[in-house]
Every structure is written in structure tokens, then in C-alpha cells.
Write a structure and sequence with these properties.
The chain has 22 helices and 19 strands. It has 722 residues and is α/β, with parallel strands linked by helices. The strands form 5 sheets. Strands 1-12-14-13-15-17-16 form a 7-stranded mixed beta sheet, sandwiched between helices. A 4-stranded antiparallel beta sheet has the order 3-2-11-5, with no helix packed on it. α4 crosses α10, α19 packs parallel to α22 and α20 packs antiparallel against α22. The chain starts with 5 loop residues before the first helix and ends with a helix.
Length: 722
């Protein structure tokens, strides 16, 4: 294994000479070789570190693991979830103030980043009722439960969907299954007319905003979305409060904002800076923003059954039947009419990102950014504030390290984003505001939205951070078995599955708009997602009653941050680019051949990946030699890291995607038809979704150019080290 190390080859040559002189000198050299072998192994285990700095880092990480106080997670979670705190409300501002105080006390420099967003802070006035054949108002809010004191909070609201249109419609009903693109196409194929009708669809299958978008495209007058018991209800097990599944009054809230860009709807590509600030930002008129115009409301299945149980049309196709004790039908018939009313005013609302910084001692202008949003639909115990509480505790643990003289060499930023639930708004605005600085300084973004929502560990990551994810998981004990976090995660497999980053959270702007290597991870489990029941009581009863996962995820998170922060050379897994690209293009070719048998592949891409592999190998050897010999000067280290930060930017194409130029990464994007799924090589995935070969030659050129850019940067970097 050491043959590739020049220093070891030199040592072997010297060893031969010594053997010719005396056995004594041979034994001395053997001892030296053994010592150096240990040092080299240590350096190898700490990618980006010299042998001496690896030893120091090992001590820092050991100290950090001892520093984590498991009780702090529970303390912070309890405080954060005392009251419902929707973005833009006074209660959410109080949460922001609490977080800022905790971070300041930990020694962080804390800054607020305010924005004025066009949005609503409540559902306004709304109602749903049966009109014929019998008048019946339908319930829109969770029941108050004796077992859960939080359910009686007087500030809790009825279910609502942010960015719903306003309207008052009475009409007949059409059932659209999950309301996916394919479901609406199927309805049209079956001759079901949706014009002027109220569509009812169940949650699941795609982002709720696309259900509204497709309903409006097909002429519906309104949309009702409900959680079906087959997906999360009594068919899955006991319901709340006896179990962790949705009861018949539980309602999933959520935004339906669906644009071809992220963030504030009136300031595409630009930050929605305060209206009373010095710098003015042009805002488009709300009528130009393609917001939904039809009323949209969520219902519990206890209310939805009153509609679905009275429908008299044709029986639904296979796969459309849900879990209610009725035969599901496509249409309700002329005798069944429903009234849907929503009056949801929107205006400019002040939201605030809260960002704390531990300034790096050696490389302050290289940033490791950790984040989670803090606004919630109600109490937000699992989503998002389990992640918030973990990051607050982490800020305290790192603060203790700094007091003991072990502060990070790179700056560690911990960000708490506002208005994520309305459409990933706070983080997107910050990315747009800080675009130039992120291009130059951002090493990585680590996202922990709802990061401690259970006991099942997992992660998704960009290629260059995957090794970091797994290696740090090997250093943390899983609290409920005698395994490490890594071994618990991988189960009976050699390696765990690391997912690809999709949509729905705050990594989007960092990774898909400006090209910062990103990951999202933590522990999942039971959740009453976006309901009024996602409270501290629910968490301590069903999610993690022992409160051991908060400290566990904090350890993993802190190790990743510290490992990146203290390395001389940023420890990206550069090799992974070629490995993953090969697999992704092979998968894309298979999909294309399903509709184009004559397609022969991406010739330019194949050639560019081959060059990438060669250049990556050259860089590996150059870096290994430089770190082993410790020959890099401070100036050279700075240059190397600047070049490493630039690698991911190779996939940023200013033309962006055909479905939305805000999405500039050629490598990854959200699925524009589902909103949640990950699209790797999104340019190709879009053509595949259209079953079109028309632009494949263009994409071969664009992708090969990006890969060639990456390969060239890697070669230049290797040559600068050599």
C-alpha cells in the first residue's frame, strides 16, 4: 500500500544500503520505518491533514465528543416549542431572540438578516361545507386531546395552505388520487371534465404545490388536499394519541408556492431586502408572479370521508383506492356539491435569518456553514426544531472548545433560516444576497431540517462530501445498540446508502443555484408532519423518549464541521466525481433507450470523464506527496483551497435549466414535476420526462464542457502543487 509514496521508496533504498553496513543500523531504520508507517496511516485516515496536524485533530475530536452535553438538546427543544411559531409572527420573533441569546452566550458573533417577503402569516378566513344533498360544515382543525395539553393552545389555527388563491366556489367534485402529473393526465384520458369542479386529492406522490398547479391547469375551480388513512392513518397502526399515526382530525399544513425559482415570489434572483433599507430592490407586481388563483385547503380524513363517501361516479382505476371504508369514485355526481371558501390576504412581512459565526483562526474567509430553519406550522417539535435544538447545543459545545484553546481554523457559521415553510424563502434570499461571498468562501453547506426526528439515521450528499459523511459516522456510537452510527446505518450491507439531494429544504439555494457542496442528514422516525400535534409531548412520547439521539447527531455534525474546519487542505472526496458521474450517465442512457432505441450514448461525456479520472489520480498523488512531506507554504495552502472551492462551480451553467433558469446546477436539481424528488443530471432528466431526443446532442456538449472544466481545474491544481 505504500509503494505510491515517494518518501517510502526513498526509505526502502536507504534500508538496503544500511543492511550492507550493519545489522544495528538496519534495526534502527526498521524502527524508524515503523514509526513513519504509523504516521502515514494516521495522515491517510485524516484526509487533508499532515501527520502532525492529524494527531492534533484526533485530540480535538476526542475532546469534542466528551464535551457534548446530551441534556442540552432536550432543554432547547422544550423552549423552542413552547408556542406555535409561524414565520412572520411575534412568537417566531421570540424564538429568534432566544436562539440569538444562546449563540451569543456560546461566544458566536450573531447577525440578523432581515427580508420583507410577500406572504401571509395565517390562513385568513376559510370554510368547507357540503351543500347538497345535505348541508354539513366540515372540521378544519385538530381535536383537543386530554392526553396532550399542547392541543388546547388557543393560538393554534385551522389547517391552511400558504399561497392559496382566494375565492368562494360551490361545485361538484372530482377525485384525482395523489394529484400528480400522471394522475391528471389519466383523468383527462378517461374523459373526466375538471373545468369548474372542486378537485379532491390525497397527500403524497408530489409536492402539494404541484397538485394545485395541475388542478388549475386543468381548469379546476378549487382544490382540497387530505391525508388518506392508507398513507398515514389507522391502516398504518394506532393513531394519535395512542400511536404516532394521523387521527381523523390531523391535518397536514404546508405551502403551495410553485414557481420556477426559489424564494420570495416578487424578487426572483434578487434578495428581498427590507423596504425601509438603504438598498432598494425592484419587485415585480404580484399579478406577474404566477401565484395560484384558485382556493386550496387541507382537510383531515375525518372530513374528507364526508365527501368521498357520498360520491356516485365511476369506480377509480387500480391503485387509486385509499383507506376509507368506501369505494373510491372519480366523480361525485350532480347531486353532491361542496362549497370551498378561502380569503387569505398577503402582504409584505418581515422575516429574519439568524446567523452566528465562530471566526476561524487561520482561514477565516473559508466558511463551513451549518443550517436548519426555525419557523414551523405549529409547535414544530420534529419539523424543524429538532434540528434547531441540536444546532443550538452544538454552538455551545464548540464554544467550550474555543474557551479551551481549540477553536476552528476555518470559520464555522450556524444559520437558522426563517420562512422555509412558506417556500424555502429565508435561505434562498440569503444565498441570493451573499452570492459573491459564497462563490469565494463557502466550503460546504450542511442542512439539518428536522434533523433529530427519530432513531433511524440517514443522509444525502453531493459527491465530494460523501466520504466525510460516512467516516464521521464511524466515530460516533449509536445509543440504542452496541454499534457505531455507521454500522447501525449500513445494516447488513458493506456500505450504507447515501441519497441524492432533492427538494424541499434549505440546501436548494446553496447546491442548485450557486454550487456549494452540500449534505442533508440526521435521524428520522415517527412524525405528525405539519399538524398541530407535532409538539414536545408527541416528541417525548413517540419520537425519542430517552432523548439520546440529539447528542448523537450533534456529535456526528460537530465532527464533520471540525474535520473540514481544521484540515490544511479541504478534505473533499474529489475521486467521487468520476465514480458517480459514470453511474449517473449509465442510468440516463438506459432511460433514454426506453423511448429511443437508436440512441448510442454520450460520446463527448465519456471522453471527458476518462480525462477526469486521469487528472484526479494525478491530483491524489500530488496532494499525498505534499501532505506527507509537509512542503506546502501558507500561501500555497490558501491557493490550493481556493481552487478546491471552485471545483463544484464547474457544474454551474448560467443558462440554467429549461424548466427554470434559477436552477443553474447541471449536476442536481429538484424534480420540477414533483418538487421533492432528486434529479441527478437534471438537463437529461427533463428530456427523459418529455420522452424527447431533440436536445440530447446539446446536453452532451454542455455536460462534457462542465466535466472538462472540472478536469482542467483538477489538473491545474495538481500541477501547482507539483
Amino acid at each position: 500500500m505504500f509503494a505510491k509514496w515517494p518518501i517510502f521508496r526513498e526509505l526502502k533504498t536507504t534500508q538496503t544500503m544500511m543492511l550492507e553496513n550493519s545489522r544495528k543500523k538496519y534495526l534502527q531504520l526498521f524502527a524508524l520505518a515503523a514509526l513513519m508507517s504509523v504516521s502515514l496511516v494516521s495522515a491517510q485516515n485524516y484526509g487533508g491533514y499532515t501527520a502532525s496536524s492529524a494527531k492534533k485533530q484526533e485530540a480535538v475530536e476526542a475532546e469534542f465528543l466528551k464535551t457534548v452535553d446530551f441534556s442540552k438538546f432536550k432543554e432547547h427543544l422544550k423552549k423552542l416549542t413552547e408556542r406555535p411559531h409561524v414565520a412572520g409572527t411575534t412568537a417566531n420573533k421570540e424564538v429568534a431572540d432566544y436562539m440569538a441569546t444562546v449563540m451569543e452566550n456560546a461566544g458566536m458573533d450573531v447577525e440578523l438578516y432581515p427580508y420583507d417577503i410577500y406572504m401571509s402569516t395565517s390562513g385568513g378566513n376559510s370554510s368547507v361545507e357540503l351543500v347538497t344533498p345535505h348541508r354539513m360544515p366540515l372540521n378544519q382543525q385538530e381535536d383537543i386531546l386530554e392526553e396532550d395539553k399542547f392541543s388546547a393552545d388557543t393560538t393554534l389555527e385551522k389547517g391552511w395552505n400558504a399561497y392559496s388563491g382566494s375565492g368562494d366556489v360551490t361545485s361538484t367534485v372530482v377525485y384525482a388520487n395523489y394529484g400528480t402529473k400522471e394522475d391528471f393526465e389519466k383523468l383527462e384520458e378517461m374523459g373526466v371534465d375538471m373545468k369548474g369542479k372542486i378537485v379532491i386529492a390525497r397527500y403524497g406522490g408530489n409536492f402539494r404545490g404541484f397538485k394545485a398547479k395541475f388542478a388549475e391547469q386543468y381548469g379546476a375551480a378549487g382544490l382540497i388536499i387530505y391525508t388518506d388513512p392508507a398513507d398515514s392513518g389507522y391502516m398504518k397502526g394506532l393513531v394519535y394519541p395512542d400511536g404516532h399515526n394521523y387521527n381523523e382530525s390531523a391535518i397536514q399544513r404546508g405551502s403551495v408556492l410553485t414557481l420556477d425559482y426559489q424564494g420570495d415570489p416578487l424578487t426572483p434572483f434578487e434578495p428581498a431586502l427590507p423596504l425601509d433599507g438603504k438598498k432598494k430592490v425592484d419587485r415585480i407586481d404580484p399579478t406577474e408572479a404566477a401565484l395560484h388563483t384558485i382556493p386550496v385547503l387541507p382537510l383531515p380524513y375525518g372530513s374528507a370521508k364526508e365527501i368521498l363517501g357520498r360520491m356516485q361516479g365511476k369506480v377509480v382505476p387500480n391503485g387509486w383506492q385509499g383507506g376509507l371504508p368506501y369505494t373510491y369514485r372519480l366523480e361525485g355526481g350532480e347531486e353532491l356539491t361542496v362549497r370551498l371558501k378561502v380569503d387569505q390576504p398577503k402582504n409584505y412581512v418581515r422575516v429574519n435569518n439568524v446567523v452566528g459565526t465562530f471566526k476561524g483562526s487561520t482561514y477565516p474567509d473559508e466558511w463551513i456553514i451549518l443550517g436548519c430553519h426555525y419557523d414551523a406550522w405549529a409547535f414544530g417539535a420534529t419539523d424543524p426544531n429538532s434540528g434547531t435544538a441540536m444546532l443550538l447545543s452544538l454552538s455551545e459545545s464548540i464554544g467550550k472548545l474555543i474557551k479551551n484553546g481549540n477553536g476552528p481554523k476555518r470559520s464555522i457559521l450556524i444559520a437558522h433560516w426563517d420562512a422555509e415553510e412558506h417556500g424555502v424563502i429565508g435561505s434562498s434570499e440569503w444565498v441570493e444576497q451573499m452570492r459573491d461571498e459564497l462563490d469565494a468562501k463557502a466550503v460546504a453547506y450542511l442542512n439539518f431540517d428536522g434533523g433529530v426526528s427519530g432513531k433511524n439515521f440517514g443522509a444525502s450528499s453531493s459527491p465530494s462530501l460523501k466520504n466525510l459523511v460516512t467516516q464521521m459516522a464511524k466515530k460516533v456510537d449509536y445509543p440504542y445498540t452496541d454499534k457505531t452510527l455507521f454500522d447501525q446505518w449500513r445494516g447488513d450491507k458493506k456500505e450504507p446508502r447515501i441519497g441524492n439531494l432533492g427538494g424541499g429544504s434549505d440546501h436548494i439555494g446553496f447546491y442548485m443555484h450557486v454550487g456549494v457542496p452540500s449534505l442533508s442528514g440526521g435521524a428520522g422516525g415517527p412524525t405528525l408532519y405539519h399538524t398541530n400535534y407535532d409538539s414536545f409531548h408527541f416528541y417525548e412520547t413517540f419520537v425519542d423518549p430517552e432523548f439520546k439521539m440529539g447528542g448523537t447527531i450533534e456529535k456526528w455534525t460537530g465532527l464533520m464541521a471540525l474535520r473540514m474546519a481544521n484540515a490544511e487542505v479541504i478534505p473533499y472526496d474529489v475521486d467521487r466525481y468520476a465514480v458517480d458521474l459514470k453511474g449517473h450517465f449509465a442510468s440516463a442512457v438506459e432511460k433514454i433507450k426506453e423511448f429511443d432505441e437508436d440512441f448510442e450514448g454520450f460520446d463527448k461525456v465519456e471522453k471527458s470523464i476518462a480525462v477526469l479520472e486521469t487528472n484526479t489520480d494525478i491530483l491524489d498523488k500530488a496532494l499525498s506527496r505534499a501532505l506527507t512531506e509537509g512542503t506546502l507554504s501558507k500561501k500555497e495552502i490558501k491557493s490550493v483551497n481556493q481552487q478546491l472551492i471552485a471545483l463544484e462551480k464547474s457544474f454551474i451553467d448560467e443558462r440554467g435549466m429549461y424548466y427554470g433558469s434559477w436552477y443553474k446546477s447541471l449536476y442536481a436539481s429538484t424534480d420540477p414535476f414533483s418538487g421533492y424528488a432528486s434529479w441527478i443530471l437534471p438537463g437529461l432528466e427533463y428530456e427523459i420526462s418529455l420522452a424527447s431526443s431533440d436536445r440530447l446532442e446539446e446536453w452532451d456538449q454542455r455536460y462534457s464542457a462542465a466535466i472538462e472544466s472540472l478536469a482542467n481545474k483538477i489538473l491545474v491544481l495538481a500541477q501547482s502543487i507539483s
